[in-house]
Amino acid sequence: MSKWSALLRGRCAYNPAIQVLSPTLYLISVPLQGLMGYKERRTRQWRYYTLTGSRLLSPVREPEKLHQWLELESFVNPSQEWHDARMTIEGDIVPAKVVNVFKDLLETSIKTRGLTNKVSVLESVGTAVRVAVETSEAQIEVKLVPTVELMNYWPKRARWPRLFRRWPSTERARCIKSFGFNLMASSNYHWLLSFSRAEQVLLSNIDEDGGCRRKCYRVVRQLKEDGWCPGSKPVITAFHLQTLLFWTCEKYPCTRDWKDFRGCVLRLVQKLHKCVSQHYLRHYFIRSHNLLKYSNTNELDEVAKKINHFLENPEL
Hints:
By secondary structure, this protein is an alpha+beta fold. It has helices at 2-9, 95-112, 170-177, 196-203, 213-228, 238-251, 261-278, 297-312, and strands spanning 18-22, 25-31, 67-68, 88-89, 92-93, 119-121, 129-134, 139-150, 181-184, 191-194. Strand 1 (18-22) and strand 2 (25-31) form a beta hairpin. This is Protein mab-21-like 3 isoform X7.
């Protein structure tokens, strides 16, 4: 009871660099320095190199909808270290190479700071840098992702806000876009687009009209963590629920739509059930991308069953 009382009363402090994916799994973006004055430009179409710099006979696959290449020429005056062959190939800033340099620096820092008894680098698959951190309560896992922060620039592929939508207001949407976006080193060749700062601004003052949007989000998140999708690496994360909340706010923009707390929670749960059942949840800013595209379908179906059981008798 005390946990739920605190949940319903509390206000959360959000840091756009930190995503809480589960109670014991965090994702932290680590900002990279020395890349200023970004401008989106038309990049060359094909790449024929491997991560070691060898030549390929066929080109590297093109980036998916939420990814892109990143060229040094996209920045006005990148600092000299970015011309280092340890991080670039043929003018491209290569995520996998940047992560390798970052990992070496991280391991050195852990040793020189005397943190080897509290922080340890875990074995990783792909470009993820995973560390285990001992806290006073439990051990948590943190994914560290080198990130290029691009302020005051909005990517052309993020066609937002959409026409004839009343949430958020035009003035607020203009403010949100001024915070720009990030490019995260989360794959070998391509950079992942992230809108964490924009999402933070959307969440802040989301209930300035006296609604219960954030309270509904917190309750559904707790239900997910307690019963529907527990564990350290859930198939449905807090980011999925946050995206679902944004879509629901856009569909129901009026103050009166967010006055009935019980009804609003059930509406959000019903929408979650639909997305999980269909294995489809659109990214809020780049709506052509399905956030559940690569999720385990068996796990999604199991979560859908649990949510359906809840909806049959939510009073229990």
